[in-house]
Structure formats: C-alpha cells, structure tokens
Amino acid sequence: MTTVIQAKNLDLTYQTNDGPVDALKGVDLDINKGDFVSFIGPSGCGKTTFLRAIADLEQPTGGTLTVNGMTPEQARQSRAYGYVFQAAGLYPWRTIGGNIRLPLEIMGYPKSDMAKRVEEVLELVHLDGFEKKFPWQLSGGMQQRASIARALAFDADILLMDEPFGALDEIVRDHLNEQLLELWARTNKTIGFVTHSIPEAVYLSTKIVVMSPRPGRITDVIESPLPRERPLDIRDTPEFLEIAHRVREGLREGHAYDD
Ligand code: ADP
Ligand code: MG
User: Which CATH number is associated with domain 3-80+156-258?
Assistant: First the structure.
C-alpha cells in the first residue's frame, strides 16, 4: 500500500492578536493511495487548516507533513492535487468551460489538449453539454459539480474537498454523494473530504477521521468495513449505523459543551 499523505506529530499554531491558537496539535495520520478519507468534527477543530497545510496554503509550525513523499510545496509545484472549496467560486463572467480551462491556461497547458480535457472532466461530473453555459444558469448542485470538474482539470491523483456540499439541501447532497463515489471508483483518486455530516462521512469514506477542538487534534480514526460499492440504502444497514454511532461517540467525547 502506498502512503500518499503522511502527517507526523504535526502542529500548526496561528499567531493572532489574542495570542497563539493551536489549530492542529500532534496530528498523526497516514492516507493511502485510493483512500476516501473524511474529516469530521465541530467548527474550529482544524479541518480546513489540515487540508490547507496539505495544499501548502498554511505552514505547519511543528512535525512533518509529506504529500507523495515530497514537501507540500514540491507537491503543489508538481500539481499533485486538486482543491474544491466550500463555495463553488466560479467566475461569473466565464462560461463553465472557461472556468475549467482557467487553471490549465494559467499553467500553459497545450491549447490543442484543452478542449478534450474540458470535455472529459465535464463528462465525469455529468455536466456534458454545459460547457457554454454561465454559472448563474446552473443550480447550486450543478455549480458545485462544475467546481469539482475544475479541480479535476489536471488529473491530479489527490482531490481535496472542503465541505463541498455543505450549502446544499439533503436530496441534492445524496445525489452528489452517489456521483462522487462513482467518480472516485472510476478515477481511482485519493480523496480528502471535510464534512459536518455523520451520514455523509460514513457513506463516503474508507477512513473517517474524528477531530476535536482546542487544540485541534484527532480523537479517533475509523477504518470502514463497508464495501466500496455502496448503494444509498446501505445507510439503513446495522453495519452503517454502528459506524455512525462510533463517530457520534467520538464527537461527543471530544466536545466540552462549554460553548
Ligand atoms: P474548521 O475548518 O475545523 O472549522 P479551522 O481549521 O478553520 O477549523 O480553524 C481552526 C482554528 O484555527 C480555529 O480556532 C480558527 O479560529 C483558527 N484559525 C483558522 N484560520 C486562522 C487564521 N488564518 N488566523 C488565525 N486563526 C485561524
Ligand atoms: Mg472549515
């Protein structure tokens, strides 16, 4: 098994006007190739910070972090990952195709390959034929799929997703969860996924990382016994409910109820 992301005793402390904030403290984690890893925990437990550290958008203040055996900076330069933000963040003056092409244009991707690549990623997120539409012509769920397509543009092996479906209603979210699993199965990517939702974490993940705040740390890592192929109604099985229960217990233990 290949380790793609490895954190060892990782610390990340922000210096603020109110003093230091320990966003991550002593985080140890191995993410293997092809894993679907969810990070779940209350607001402020360091989920976004951890994803941003992997993406070289924040600098750890202690411990080590490697991505594909490299430093996060080297991994970023080799375009090791795509990143999906909480808000779709599509440019309204660009078409869907134009938004997906943007990172490719910035990196000087060969023009001749661009159209084909845009077509491929649109197909992966089931937005075939929407290339010439503008973001406002798409529903919230479709916009979020377009932003996933954009993150897939370089065909990086790692996909980092920060609460990508948090703002969507439950029916749409169910549908996107199913599609994301299908995309993961088809592309064999390694996915790091932040969520607030226990059912979403359990439904999607091969590994669930439960986190707790002040300082931000990992309190439980659950290796899911569920098969990789998962119809939505797997959520009614005893196996599923048992994992959900363990996640809930982990969240409860990590929570001080002082706020
Ligand atoms: P989560 O994504 O789990 O809600 P974050 O990683 O955003 O948590 O934040 C973890 C902690 O670090 C919080 O206490 C938050 O206020 C603090 N924090 C996050 N980003 C910054 C920053 N740029 N400067 C100072 N403090 C920050
Ligand atoms: Mg966050």
Answer: 3.40.50.300
